[in-house]
Amino acid sequence: MKNLRGSKLARVIVISSMVGALVASGGTANAATKTITCYKGKVVKKVTATKPKCPTGYTTKKPVTTAATGAVAFSGTYKGKISMLWSDSDVRATSVTGVGTGNISGLTALTGTGSAAPASQCDAFIGTGVLGTGANTLKVSFDPASKACADSSAAPADITLTGFVIVNGGTGKFAGATGKLKVTGSFSIKSTTAGSSESSSFTLTLTGDIKTK
Fold first, then answer.
1. From CA 165, how far away is CA 146, in angstroms rounded?
2. How far, in Å, CA of 124 to CA of 115, rounded?
3. Strand partners, 23
4. CA dihedral 32, 38, 43, 44 (to 10 degrees)
5. Is 107 within 8 Å of 133 (Cβ atoms)?
6. Are 104 and 72 in contact (CB under 8 A)?
7. N or C: at which end does the chain have fewer Cβ atoms within 10 angstroms?
8. Which residues, in sequence order, are bridge partners of residue 73?
9. Beta-sheet pairing, 109-116 with 122-131
10. What is the pLDDT of residue 21?
């Protein structure tokens, strides 16, 4: 009887151990796993485990996303009319209006003003303008080193513009824009009388990159 009892007791112990082992293993197998996302600069890793941890140098805090800064290639030619008032001491472009073609990001219109105080056949040209209309516009101004050069010391004369224009922000998708565009252009002074007001055709080509915010 003792041996029988001992045998039964032994089997109970074995069965209990097996049940305990099964419960334990089942608990481990069914333990919930969790996935976390870890960040390190622009690198993103996902870690899955029962107690997931980010690798050294990574954090679960997502970096703050800022508006991407990109360079927009710009290359276009504007043609239109320039209205001038000129004398022996200066030339003023009282109105400049034109239409552009090319890779110009939809900025098809040009308006502006300018002036020069000629002391020689090549002098600094000052001017400001706006490209585009409506919600998206780009503000530009001639770099102080830009030149207006005449092919003659007296009118009539053909004028060539060379240098750069500086991007000074804008509106819409060009708000806060910066950049520097190479400029070449031309127009003519036809009247021979100082103090004349006249209108002439002009061509202006702009190339370079615009940085947007």
1. 8
2. 9
3. none
4. 30
5. no
6. no
7. N
8. 209
9. antiparallel
10. 41
Nearest to 142 by CA among 122, 118, 161: 161
Residue type at 163?
A: G
What's 111-153 look like in SS3?
EEEEEECCCCCEEEEEEEEEECCCCCEEEEEECCCCEEEECCC
CA 148, 152, 155, 157 torsion-angle sign: negative
Q: How many residues does the chain have?
A: 213
**Backbone Cα Rg of the chain:** 38
Structure tokens at 134: 């409506």
CA 184 to chain centre: 24
User: Pick from 35, 61, 38: which is nearest to 48 by CA?
Assistant: 35
Place of tokens 């004028």: 159
Which stretches within the chain are classed as H helix?
Answer: 2-29
Q: Record the pTM.
A: 0.66
CB neighbour list of residue 70: distance below 8 Å, 6 or more residues apart? 211, 212
d(CA 117, CA 153): 13
pLDDT, tens digit only, all 213 positions of the chain: 445 445 554 454 444 444 344 334 444 445 688 999 998 887 899 999 999 999 998 999 887 654 445 788 999 999 999 999 988 788 899 999 999 999 999 999 999 999 988 888 899 989 999 999 999 999 999 999 999 999 988 889 999 999 999 999 999 999 999 999 999 999 999 988 878 899 999 999 999 999 987
